[in-house]
Prior knowledge:
The protein has 355 residues and is α+β, with helices and mostly antiparallel strands. Helix content is 29%, strand content 21%. Residues 1-9 have low confidence and may be disordered.
Amino acid sequence: xxxxxxxxxxxxxxxxxxxxxxxxxxxxxxxxxxxxxxxxxxxxxxxxxxxxxxxxxxxxxxxxxxxxxxxxxxxxxxxxxxxxxxxxxxxxxxxxxxxxxxxxxxxxxxxxxxxxxxxxxxxxxxxxxxxxxxxxxxxxxxxxxxxxxxxxxxxxxxxxxxxxxxxxxxxxxxxxxxxxxxxxxxxxxxxxxxxxxxxxxxxxxxxxxxxxxxxxxxxxxxxxxxxxxxxxxxxxxxxxxxxxxxxxxxxxxxxxxxxxxxxxxxxxxxxxxxxxxxxxxxxxxxxxxxxxxxxxxxxxxxxxxxxxxxxxxxxxxxxxxxxxxxxxxxxxxxxxxxxxxxxxxxxxxxxxxxx
Length: 355
Ligand SMILES: O=C(O)CCC(=O)C(=O)O
Ligand SMILES: [Fe+2]
């Protein structure tokens, strides 16, 4: 057995650590200079920058003011709160509810979906994030990670059957959020004066969509750890359903960490690296992080990623002599391998891909 595999096997689930009353050990403790100190943190108050809010109902009905708001949100923040979507509050509550119930199950039940198979890490399933080296500082969360689209690539053995409605709710959430994602992609293409189907077609039927259910156990020393360390998403776009009770997400804006407040039943739309690249840097993929809390927290992320064999590059309409491509080309598959390797070492932007 290789050394890395041994490292993985020794790790406990964070939820079990928290339950046993142990605080975070060295493996979770950030170096002093990296800790979530409050000096660079802006509380949300009217005198500080506020995360933009876009009304999707107005946007999808051709409201120019809303399109303008979207444009400024994705160019200066790279993320926004989406209200006015057509998902009912009771359905979103159900999504939250089945997620919470899954993490509340006894360990033996959840282990049926473990992302360690004979000690080897699998992308899908329940467990820790990938631990690449012994030096890696581990985030204070457990996750359930599932490929939800294309449908014929789903591996149902990873999909919980408990709570009994989990699979059905996840399927319905996948279909409904994909419609919202496609409509947002249309609006984004229009902003760049591209064919309005440009991003929808780039994503296409073979796009890989992953659902990540992240459980952040309560932590006795939230000042020492991260729920998720600073990063930008690898996706084209991410749709996040935030915990309604407990905040934790923060976004880096002009060098300051700004709190992303949870608005009940809103969706948080976050552009990822693939969109930054396709838009040749016009749209931003923001650096964000999650701080731990003395209360537990859950979030559900849907990541939309281009088909693995595709070449990741800016739209040719956004490249000219005066604005050459800012990024080196590679396949999506190679990009993702490099991304996850760098993420585990705490790299949080795509500076490394720049020409
Ligand atoms: O839990 C959150 O609020 C954000 C999670 C996140 O950034 C991610 O899963 O990439
Ligand atoms: Fe993220």
